[in-house]
Amino acid sequence: MLEVKNLAKSYQKDKPALTDISFKVDSGKFVAIIGPSGAGKTTILRSLNQLIKDDDGQILLDGEDIRAANKAELRKLRRQIGMIFQNYNLVERLTVIENVLHGRLGYKSTISGMIGRYTEEEKREALELLDKVGLSEFALQRCSELSGGQKQRVGIARALIQHPKVILCDEPIASLDPASAQNVMKLLKDLTVEFNIICIANLHQIGLAKEHADQIIGIRKGQMVYNDVSENLSEDAIADLYGTAAVKELVE
Ligand SMILES: Nc1ncnc2c1ncn2[C@@H]1O[C@H](COP(=O)(O)OP(=O)(O)OP(=O)(O)O)[C@@H](O)[C@H]1O
């Protein structure tokens, strides 16, 4: 279980980016964080793996406080937290399977990683994961030759080979066409259940969030104004988050 308690962050004095954010997520659940631009969604994700240093609160992953970890502990904890990015962050000139194997780098010495020393077991697992994301026949193709949706599926396989407890997705479908976005959201949801992990995604697409996520967290001006199962996300709640005028456009 992931439990965030009273998380707070200011980038500048007297200008809080996050105030008193508290929520819990169980394993096997897919959570969407929604809210207007600048609300603080990315700041929450980056705090969860300590890419930014927040100011106050607790982030407990299965009871262990990520914020209290020293450097060595944090390196170990980060293996348990996979990341998926809007722009995929793949090495385009390398093959699909090499990119998936990069997810193992957190488990290796710098030298082993640099010379691409992976075990047979790791290679077999990479192929199995590529099969799960529907890309087994692309294993030896360069990533530069893939579509956006395919690249994001490589990103998902790369995160899963870390054996994460949590996957954090920063706008994972923002660069995708509607069909690929739908496909990636369904895949994230299905794999979250299959691997019994926690998946947290920042999203601007409220319709897709409601359709695929189990839980929705709404952030407005650095404050959590909504936290409930996705079925309960009403038009009133959306209007409260984004303003009345935006509701129709956002829900469609
Ligand atoms: N490195 C930074 N230095 C100063 N202020 C920052 C920094 N990063 C974010 N902020 C500010 O913190 C607030 C929250 O930003 P954040 O990027 O978390 O929002 P967001 O909800 O993810 O937005 P978007 O949907 O546009 O990505 C904003 O007011 C933003 O300007």
TrEMBL record:
Residue intervals passing through the bilayer: none
Residue span, ABC transporter domain: 2-246
CDD domains, alphabetized: ABC_PhnC_transporter (cd03256)
GO MF term set: ATP binding
Keywords: ATP-binding, Cell membrane, Membrane, Nucleotide-binding, Phosphonate transport, Translocase, Transport
A Pfam family assignment: ABC_tran
Keyword Translocase: yes
Record-linked PANTHER family: AMINO ACID IMPORT ATP-BINDING PROTEIN, PHOSPHONATES IMPORT ATP-BINDING PROTEIN PHNC
Protein's recorded name: Phosphonate ABC transporter ATP-binding protein
